[in-house]
Design goal:
- This protein has a domain of 219 residues: Rossmann fold, CATH 3.40.50.
- It starts with a strand and ends with a strand.
- Helix 3 crosses helix 4 and helix 4 packs across helix 6.
- 35% of the residues lie in helices and 20% in strands.
- It is an alpha/beta fold and 322 residues long.
- The strands form two sheets. A ten-stranded mixed sheet has the order 1-6-3-7-8-2-9-10-11-12, with helices on both faces.
- Strand 4 and strand 5 form a beta hairpin.
Length: 322
């Protein structure tokens, strides 16, 4: 992963929309039938899902995999939305050999890297933070050495080994730490740059705290449909999945996740995280039990999935479906 500094607004190149083809006549479904059947026949691989694997068995089946379009994840503060999105991006890159880019409008690159290292190694984030002078740069190469290396616990060998084992797919993941002035035009430009760097048109995009892309003088309820519409348009134009995170600051109570479908129409998939207080009581604090509601899904099923979240290591684990 790299810490990408966004270029100044004055350096942004204007994005040109692709115009409709002007050459040739429009063809009917019947005229295109044979070529379409031939295209389908080329892909002889039998798949259980149509899109990319998420790394979560039940989620992959329910969503029919990750496909191009807008995915909106909604949840209350401190329920692990960012950790889930980062883990999802890492798992998509690992299981599908595709690049992924995480746009952070809140957390720093260092904080996000610590989440990944904690999840991979099993070391608590606070333990990694204590040895931040030794924090791995590029996940495997020591960034700096201060003091006596023997002061760090032996578990740091496990951290370095976990990072090195993951470098194969970490080479396909990128983090962009955004500024207060970052807008969707800059994000689209950066996606193009990552595509060029990774030499791949396929890419998985995560945008954390996407509400910050809207006008600051607008309330969150007013921003939601506007930002969702813009993100959906970007997903269509770029032909890529965009996974965006939106906070639920009490506008809709947790017992009414389905109500979000009435607030915003654009997303292809709406996922709502809800704290499961009953199951949480059976876990050791500060671990949390969560329910992921799939309240809208144009390409697959609706329903509920159960997860356990371990904040100390920034890890989500899927449990039996509800």
């Amino acid at each position: 992963m790299i810490n990408c500094a966004l270029p100044r607004a004055g350096e942004m190149a204007k994005l040109q929309r692709k115009s409709m083809r002007k050459n040739g006549h429009i063809q009917s479904e019947g005229e295109q039938l044979e070529s379409f059947l031939a295209e389908l026949e080329k892909d002889r691989q039998v798949k259980e899902i149509a899109g990319w694997e998420t790394g979560f068995v039940h989620l992959s089946r329910a969503l029919n995999g990750i496909l191009p379009g807008l995915y909106l994840l909604i949840g209350p503060p401190a329920c692990g939305k960012t950790s889930l999105a980062k883990q999802l991006l890492d798992q998509v890159a690992m299981h599908n050999a595709v690049p992924g880019v995480f746009f952070s409008l809140a957390e720093t690159v260092k904080e996000l890297r610590i989440k990944t290292l904690a999840r991979l190694s099993g070391l608590e984030s606070r333990e990694i933070q204590r040895g931040s002078a030794y924090l791995l740069h590029w996940y495997g190469v020591p960034k700096a050495h201060y003091g006596d290396p023997n002061e760090l616990p032996p578990s740091w060998d496990k951290l370095k080994q976990s990072a090195r084992e993951a470098k194969r797919w970490l080479d396909r993941t990128y983090i962009v730490e955004c500024t207060a002035n970052t807008d969707l035009r800059e994000i689209e430009k950066r996606i193009g740059e990552v595509r060029a760097t990774a030499n791949s048109e396929k890419i998985f995009v995560v945008i954390d705290d996407c509400q910050r892309l809207g006008q600051r003088d607008q309330s969150l309820p007013a921003r939601l449909p506007i930002i969702a519409e813009q993100l959906q348009e970007s997903a269509v134009n770029l032909k890529t999945p965009i996974f965006a995170i939106w906070p639920n600051l009490g506008e809709i109570v947790e017992s009414q996740p389905q109500a979000w479908t009435e607030k915003v129409a654009s997303p292809d998939v709406i996922l709502v995280l809800e704290k499961d207080l009953g199951r949480t009581q059976k876990l050791t604090e500060p671990n949390q039990a969560l329910t992921l509601h799939i309240v809208k899904n144009r390409g697959g099923e609706k329903g509920k999935l159960a997860f356990d979240f371990y904040p100390a290591v920034s890890k989500f684990m899927e449990v039996e479906s509800l």
